[in-house]
Amino acid sequence: LFKLAVAVTLEEARFNAVAKAKSLEEVATLVNRYGFDGIEISIIDPKTLDTTYVKKILAESGLEIPALSTGLNYIHLGLSLTSSNREKRELAVKRLLEFIDLAERLEAGVVIGLIRGCIEEGQSREEAYKLMIKGLRKICAYSEQKDVQLFFEPINRYETNLINTVEESLNVLEEVESPVLKLLLDTFHMNIEEPKIEESIRKASRKIGHVHVADSNRLAPGMGHLDFHAILTALKDAGYNGYLSAEVMIKPSLEKVLQTTGSTLKPLIKNCFKGSP
Ligand code: LER
Ligand code: MN
């Protein structure tokens, strides 16, 4: 069965598709109330997260942290694997290694979304691509030692000009060739970039490590016009069996997001796995 999570941040984030939480404890209570299984956490500096406190909340609530999201490092600090500024590139790698350390302790994966970078002005695609692959190889080597999965996310053209589609991302995986590097499929980005979402999911078979769910308008699943029945069926057929993490704009409230996501996806999940052991 797919498990459900919601993406939250404990920071003053300049990214709107994430719930702002006062405390992890407060989110855990809500998430539990709506029968979710996990919380995805978006942070800037992984060293500031009090692991003992987080583990205590997880133990008490029975929840998991499927993924740690890193994009705020790009949005707030301009850190990326492709930065033309060497110091920022090196800091991005350093930061990602710190994320991997934390992920190991929390048994989570690490999202490689916006932090991969973009093609900057004055940079050629080849240069940016080469820097990205070089950075990915460094972090994959470290992640392999720690047995932490990395989730590489194709992101739509309005947010980055480097790697927008599933096909491009599969090429990246092939080039880096690391057993810990998987795909993160985000239904919001896929709705913009993929010719047919279900077909792209099938092409990604066996490579999918994590899934972000949002509807066509980046609201909670059920608040837009994506066909989640078709999407979940394709994910199951692709051999995926992990988390569906709602990375959505919190409108009108986190409670409503959890309720709508749950009431939209839970019956579909049940139906999808009917008859499966
Ligand atoms: C992050 O998972 C995402 O989807 C991007 O749009 C921003 O990081
Ligand atoms: Mn996403």
Q: What hetero molecules are in the model?
A: L-Erythrulose, manganese (II) ion
Percent of residues in β-strands: 5-15%
Sequence of strands across the biggest β-sheet: 1-3-4-5-6-7-8-9
Helix coverage percent of residues?
Answer: 40-55%
Q: Biggest β-sheet, characterized?
A: 8 strands, parallel, barrel
Q: End-to-end span in angstroms?
A: 10 Å
> Number of helix segments?
10
Average the pLDDT over all residues and give the rounded result. Answer: 96
Structural class: alpha/beta
Order of helices and strands: EEHEHEHHEHEHEHHEHEH
Multimeric state: single chain
Evaluate the radius of gyration: 18 Å
What is the approximate shape?
globular
Describe this protein's structure.
The protein starts with a strand and ends in a 5-residue tail after the last helix. It is 45% helix and 14% strand. The model has no long low-confidence stretch (mean pLDDT 96). It is globular, with a radius of gyration of 18 Å. It has 10 helices and 9 strands. The protein has helices spanning 24-33, 51-61, 72-77, 86-106, 125-146, 166-176, 187-193, 197-203, 228-237, 254-272; strands at residues 3-9, 19-20, 38-42, 67-69, 109-112, 150-152, 181-186, 208-213, 243-246. An 8-stranded parallel beta barrel has the order 1-3-4-5-6-7-8-9, surrounded by 5 helices. The chain is an alpha/beta fold and 277 residues long. The protein binds L-Erythrulose (LER) and manganese (II) ion. The site of L-Erythrulose (LER) has 11 residues, from loops.
